[in-house]
Amino acid sequence: MTYDAVIVGAGHNGLVTACYLARAGMKVCVVEKNDWIGGAAVSRELYPGFTYSNCSYVSSLFRPEIMRDLELSKHGLQILPYEGGAVFQQGGGYLGMFRDHDANRREFARHSRRDAEAYDIYARDILRFCRFIRPMLMRTPPDPSSFRPRDLAELMWLARQMGALSEGQRAEMVRFWTMSISDYLDEYFESPVIKGYLAVSAIIGTALGPMSPGSAYVLLHHYMGDVDGNVGAWGFARGGMGAITRALTASLQAAGGEVRTGSGVDRIAVRDGRATGVVLANGDEIAGRRVISNMDVKRTFLKHVEEKELPGDFVRRVKAFKIRGSSGKLNIALDAAPVFPALPEGAPMIRGDLHFTDSIERMERGYDDWKAGHYSRDPFQDVMIPTMIDPTMTPPGKHFMSCFVQYAPPKIEGRAWTDADRDGFRDTCLNQIESYSPGFKDRVLHVEVRTPRELEAEVGLTEGNIFQGELTFDQLLFNRPVPGYAQYRSPIRDLWMCGSSTHPGGGVMGAPGRNAAAEVLREAKLKPTMSDAYAVL
Amino acid sequence: MTNLTHFRTPLRHTPFHPRTASANRLNRWGPWAGCMTSLCYGDVDMEYTAIRNAASVYDLCPMVKYRVTGPDAADYLNRLMIRNAAKLPVGGVHYTAWCDDDGKLLDDGTLFRHGPEDYLICCQERHLPWLLDSAQGFDVQVAEITEEIAALSLQGPCSASVLAAAGLDVSALKPFRMARFPFAGGEITISRTGFTGDLGYELWMTPDQALPFWDHLFAAGAPWGIRPIGTDALDLARIEAGFIITNMDFVPAHQALREDRPRSPLEMGLGWMIDWEKGNFTGRRALLAEKAQGSEWALVGLDVPGNVSAEGSILYHDKKHEAGFVTAAAWSPALKASVAIAQVKARHAGGDNLWVEIYALRELQYVKLMLPVRVVERPFYNPARRRAMPPERV
Ligand SMILES: Cc1cc2nc3c(=O)[nH]c(=O)nc-3n(C[C@H](O)[C@H](O)[C@H](O)COP(=O)(O)OP(=O)(O)OC[C@H]3O[C@@H](n4cnc5c(N)ncnc54)[C@H](O)[C@@H]3O)c2cc1C
User: Fold this and answer.
1) What's B29's domain CATH number?
2) Where is the Amine oxidase domain (chain A) (predicted)?
3) Are residues B52 and B117 in the same domain?
4) Which of A23, A418, A509, B60 could bond to B151 as cystine, CB 3.0-4.6 Å?
5) pLDDT tens figures, A427-483
6) If you average pLDDT over every residue of chain A, what do you get?
């Protein structure tokens, strides 16, 4: 039989695309190389009784319009907001973050009265940028070199968005897109620990340091989501991030779609310049009227399509696409909750994110190691204990700890990671936590360590880049993944892209998958049932 | 001279007040049935999340309670209420409502049958004169016992686990059943009931058991993140569950100033409760006539596009003619959808060409939205764990 669409990869974007297509009446099949689904939104039980969020661990970007369209609530998805966080300072102090505005202001004032009041202005300015960028997430970028009516209309729309801003705001926007987060924060704040905390979102998943130009935009990418209208807030998926892809799979199956796991695509079949299906590693062939790749752009075109089928310029651009890995992760099963003596008794911060990097300088030193081809000797870690809120991931009283780590390079001093490197990376991270939480290591039952090597091998993320390509300005909007191919199409007819390599980029957001489905359906002259983007209130 | 000091403390403190007061970080209180109740303890989002994710505790003491006893208790309640109280088994609970002679709602509530001749009515409004007058000719006693019972509502997917940790094994308790359990040398009653549309229990005790029980419950529930919740969070959950509240979604006939305000059970989506076969009951004749002629109003659940809550909005047919009004609305965190409960003229109950006009507040300025709505089933949110047997253990 011939499917209307074969989707390569059961990452959340592939599943989102598949769901929309199936709901519009297409016969779809999702093919996943692993025995499990989810890509980087995955939850596996690697230690008995403990469910991990093996890659992504918090949700904010995932568009509520998609959750609603695809009835993910009915299929079991629940997003849980979490409470604030803390940065531990060398020397025993801390900076706390609270959901309560007044508590937060008073906490910031302990560090700087000026910064406490500046924070509101800063938050307003960032929210302005969010309001600008949000409507673009759920639209196909226009092709600036095309004269087709739709492209012209979309370009006009973009121009109107810009035109609606004052001259001052336009200048601010351009500055913000091109600045380093360090310079940007210096314009508002004086306290090193407050700046150290706020800079975090600018480096997550990025091979940039906080002092690199362009890092400010990355911050915006992490702020433009929301949890139930709280812009910039993050939450957990109940049951781990895999709950998102589990709910998507259930929604897909309810709409008649299929998912095949356990054997990956070896080759995308191309005949007369058109994609006609896929050939799996186990030899199976699956025919499809179109093939939609959820893999990153490099993997799709450099590994699974024969180069002779592609224009040379396209291949050159794909090769040049920046996809450098910068992150690693530790997933830890804990016998008991860790204790952080710096925190006051009963403080809610333990239910939020915990950091040890108390200044931008320290963060930048970590990046220096990455540039030299080594993982950071004093890494930045985003430590979270989802089980402080989510009761479903471990037995009561036990905990799952997720540690997102920067920086970790794709290669160690130019050569591949070895097991010894990986163990060294692990110990560096564990020791850092232990130094703020004595006795922590004694509570560790199991650790899953993921360096860019494991991320590439398991999830298929080239070079271990968590966003399927860096979120720098040269690789965004109509330049993502490469100029001329931002509309989810490729040089090969009927071969499409729907992963995070495409606009608007990485994170568990679903927007690339949704936009790709919209384009596929438009071309097939089918009407999608899709909500328009919600307003930012 | 008397020792009267009511005017200094017009709102009664419930037996849990020492605990709820110390937990109420924001001092955000509101009156409910003459009691001081927490609207929010500190963070409405986290309190709501406790209902859907873990275990939440709501102080239920202000609920008005009447005990009905005597050989004619079942007959009396069957005359009074629209549902069949005689069919309610001992140890059972049901949701019910009662009307005036015109078939207009006076209140809705839960009825607990503690013994063959022993019932408890739990409701929102006060009805003693009506209940006593209706008792004429029946061998029953009706007593207002609101202050003799202290009650907590424990709701959330971990509630059965928390009770088990507290030494109260409720795994055999089916939805709408209750049982007695030993506690600290005495007993408490637990019913598998609630107002959240989730797994949950209501815990009934005497006022002197209140504080020791609270402490015991919170100690046992700590590993599951048990949390006291205020009315704001509960209201959000009840909207998701599609439940109505007297004086919020309809005006009880005994309080209505305007004659067109009262609504019948048929008009409020409670027609399914009416037992037409059980013999005469108050309002029966009027309700039969309404059934034959058709109702004027209908209660509907609405799905509203976008992310703006439609609270207090007016509904239009074809964007032009008024068709009804929203009585409760919210952005539902569970559904990621904007939902509303509304009264509409019965001919619009199908929802065809129905629009809602929302005034959305954007930095001190209202923006007018006219959005097409869809009539959808209530409950909006209906997780399987609500009814699962045995109850989910987390
Ligand atoms: C460690 C880590 C932490 C992160 N933390 C967060 C976070 O907290 N919050 C957040 O929002 N985002 C986070 N991200 C980013 C986010 O998870 C990703 O951007 C997103 O999940 C990518 O989704 P996708 O569907 O585009 O692609 P992927 O998830 O990469 O899916 C691609 C799929 O294709 C499959 N595949 C690959 N090759 C083949 C083949 N040959 N045949 C068949 N199938 C194949 C893969 O196995 C995979 O399932 C994190 C990512 C990582 C790695």
Assistant:
1) 3.30.1360.120
2) 14-521
3) no
4) B60
5) 999 999 999 999 999 999 999 999 999 999 999 999 999 999 999 989 999 999 999
6) 96
Probe target for ligand 1 pocket from A29, A33, A407, with the most ligand atoms within 8 Å of CB:
A33
**Enclosing H/E stretch for B180:** strand B178-183
Amino acid at A54: N
Is B176 found in the same domain as B57? Answer: yes
B202 is in an annotated binding site: yes
3-state secondary structure of A47: strand
In a domain, A434, yes or no: yes
Q: CB-based contact (8 Å) between B388 and chain A?
A: no
Range of the domain at B93: 64-147
pLDDT tens string A475-523: 999 999 999 999 999 999 999 999 999 999 999 999 999 999 999 999 9
Interface size between A and B, measured as CB pairs under 8 A: 71
* Within-domain flag for A85: no
Overall domain count for chain A:
3
Chain A partners within 8 Å of B45 (Cβ): 81, 99, 227-228, 230
CB A490 within 8 A of CB A301: yes
Q: What is the pTM of this model?
A: 0.97
**Residue in the block written with tokens 């360090």:** A182
The closest of A517, A528, A41, A478 to A292, measured between CA atoms, is: A517
CB-closest option in A73, A229, A392 to B335: A73
Residues of B in contact with A83 (CB under 8 A): 43, 46
H or E segment and range at residue B203: strand B200-205
Final residue of a structural domain among B147, B182, B208: B147
Please report whether residue A352 resides in a domain. yes
Mean pLDDT per 10-residue segment, chain B (394 residues): 81 97 97 97 97 98 98 98 98 98 98 98 98 97 98 98 98 98 97 98 98 98 96 98 98 97 98 97 98 98 96 98 98 97 98 97 95 97 96 94
State the complex-level ipTM: 0.95
Residues with CB under 6 A from ligand 1: A 8-14, 31-34, 39-41, 55-58, 61, 264-265, 294-295, 299, 327, 329, 404, 455, 459-461, 466-468, 499-500, 506-508
List, in sequence order, every residue forming a beta bridge with B338; answer none if it has no partner: B304, B331
Among A6, A10, A37, smallest CA distance to A21 is for A6
Taking a contact as any Cβ pair under 8 Å apart, which residues of chain A between 37 and 76 contact chain B? 64, 67-68, 72-73
pLDDT in tens, A78-125: 999 998 999 999 999 999 999 999 999 999 999 999 999 999 999 999
- H or E element at residue A175: helix A167-178
In a domain, B1, yes or no: no
Q: Is residue A47 part of a domain?
A: no
Query: Which tokens hold the place of A265?
Result: 């695509």
